[in-house]
Amino acid sequence: MKKALTVFTLILLIMVPLLTACGSGDTKESGEKNSGNDAGGKKHKIGILAPAVTHGWVAAVAYHAEARAKELSGEIEYKIQTSSNAEEMTSQLDDLITWGAEAIVAFPQWEGMEVPIQRALDEGIEVVNFDIEINAEGVHRVSGDNEDMGVQGANYIVDKIGKEGNVVMLEVPTSGSVSELRKKGFVDTMKEIAPDMNISTYATKFTREDGLKDFADILTSNDKIDAVYSMDDETSIGVLQAISEAGRKDIKVVTGGGGMQEYFKMMPENQDIWIQSALYSPAMVKDAVDVALDLLNGKDVEKVKVIPTTVVDRDNYQDFTDEKSPY
Predict the structure, then answer these.
(1) Cα–Cα distance between 310 and 327 in angstroms, integer?
(2) pLDDT digits (tens, 9 = 90+) for 198-233
(3) Please, what's the b/e burial string for 205-226 (b: 16 or more CB within 10 A of its CB; e: otherwise)?
């Protein structure tokens, strides 16, 4: 009997550590599965729709959106899609709905996205538009202050050249509300603070290639230009190249918008021209992803979140340089 008890005791001594080890392994695995998800349940599904890369700023939007989604990977599952036109984005929107997206962060650059976005909203999906204002009931939006960018551009030009002169305004009709609001802010402010300013308006696009091509033509038909109201840093780089290649010395101000690192570096290099950018960082899209998650978590969220405008030129550009920025 004593021998039997000794053997039994020995078996217990062997089994207890093994059972304890198995239990600790199960606990660790369970903890890892719920990492970052305070509710301990299913992750929210968020879809991200962005335009294909036609412009450095647009590329940075997709980059920052995905970076934020990865940071929130403990709380969300995400899919990011890029498209070249409204039809392709609409198809991708349908794919995200089929996937089970509870919220969609969209950057709908083209006309015609109102109907598919409204359809998603009507199906109970939260939609947070980045940058673009569209006519859809229930959509939330995160944006820079496009109208104030125009206001700041007008103030800057008047500060540098006075209340009279010849100004070329480069609008971008294909960008929808972005160009419309920037133009409104600029024109309304000029009427108020410099009503005698002569403003000529031309259409271009948000690329340096179009800025170069279009402004080269503008230079040939305008003998005297004091300032250029350009709405975008990429366009402005093309404008500055056209000015340099033409050897023009009359232009004293070129504005921009976006916050492009390459453009910032040009500011101190050209002392003959005041180069300005109304900061409109693509990193704002991170706020749009956060708003989508807040909506899914039942938090109170404002319908429109507007990021204030900051003016950058040769006097303060060093405060905004970022070597890690993709834009």
Answers:
(1) 17
(2) 999 999 999 999 999 999 999 999 999 999 999 999
(3) bbbbebbbebbbebbeebeebb
Give the single-character DSSP code of 257: E
pLDDT reported for residue 54: 62
- Encode pLDDT of 181-207 as tens digits: 999 999 999 999 999 999 999 999 999
Give me the percent of the chain exceeding a pLDDT of 70. 85
Is 0.85 topped by the overall pTM?
no
DSSP assignment string, 126-184: EEEEES-----TT-EEEEE-HHHHHHHHHHHHHHHH-S-SEEEEEE-GGGTHHHHHHHH
Residue 9 pLDDT more than 70?
no
- H or E element in which residue 9 lies: helix 2-33
Secondary structure (3-state) at 111: coil
Q: Where are the beta strands (DSSP E) in 172-314?
A: 198-203, 227-230, 253-254, 257-258, 274-275, 277-279, 304-307, 310-312
| Nearest one of 267, 265, 238, 264 to 253, comparing CA atoms | 267
3-class DSSP state of 269: coil
How much is the pLDDT for 326?
64
- The residue type of 6 is T
- Across 50-59, 104-113, 188-197, least confident range: 50-59
Dist. CA 255–CA 205, nearest whole Å: 15
**Element containing residue 215 per DSSP (H, E):** helix 208-221
CB atoms within 10 A of CB 9: 10
H/E segment holding residue 244: helix 233-246
> For the CA atoms of 186, 207, 251, 182, what is the dihedral angle to 10 degrees?
0
Q: How far is CA 168 from CA 32, 158, 255, in A?
A: 59, 13, 11
- How buried is 16 (Cβ within 10 angstroms: 0-12 exposed, 13-18 middle, 19+ buried)? exposed
